[in-house]
Amino acid sequence: MPKYVEFAISPPEFTFDISHEERVRGGIPTKAYRFNKRKMTEFIFGGEHGTFANQRVKDAIEDLEPGVHHFYPLEMFNKDGSPVEDQYYWFLSGQGVGAVLSWRSGFDGHWWKAHSGEPLHGLKSHSIETYYLSRSEVTGYHLWGNLFHGPHAIVFSDELWERLQPLDTKNMRVYSNVKVVDEVWNVRREIGVWLDWMDDNLEDMVKHYPPHLEAILRDQYEYYSAKAKAQAQ
Fold first, then answer.
1. Are 3 and 30 in contact (CB under 8 A)?
2. Can you give the pTM of this predicted structure?
C-alpha cells in the first residue's frame, strides 16, 4: 500500500544564501549552512527549512518518474564551515493528487480553513483509523503531494518505498493505516466545498500569490473543475 510520510524528528536546520521572503516568492537557494548538529539523513524533511534529497534518493525517484520532480543542486556546509561531502538537492514534488476517500475514512464534513477562508483540509490525521484511497486516482504514480484530505504529507508507492529502504531515511514518520480500494473519487462529493469557494474567490486569491504558486493553484482548480464536469455527464 502507498506510504504517507512526514518528518518525525527534528531535522537539521539551515540558513540559505537567499532570504525566507525570496524562497516564499519561488526563489531557489544554491547554498545551505547548517546551524545545528542534528543528524543528516539522505532524504531530509525540513519543514519550513525545505526538503532535501541526496544523489541516491534522486536516482531512486528518477528511475521511476524521470523528469516529473524538481531537484535543484545545493551546496551544503556543516556548522563548522566544512562542506557536506554528499551531493544534495533542494527537492520539490512535481505533482499533487487528491485520492483520499474522505467520507469512507471518517470525515465529519467539517473543513479546516485558512485565514483567507479557503477550505484546505477535512480529515484530522490523528483521529483516523484507516485512510482509504481510490485506486484509479493513485495508479501510475510513485511520489506525490497529498491534496485536500488527510495529513500534510508526501506519498510514496510501494515500489519507490522499497527502493528507498537501503538508504538512511530515519527522520520519516510513516502512516501505515492506508488501504487502496476500488471506489470512484467523486470530485463534487470529496471537494465540492473547495471548488465552490474557488469559483468565487480564485482571482482574488492569486493576486497575493507568487507566480509559481499561482500557476499550481490555477492548474489544480482547472483540473478538478473539468473532472467534476466530466463525472456529472
1. no
2. 0.85
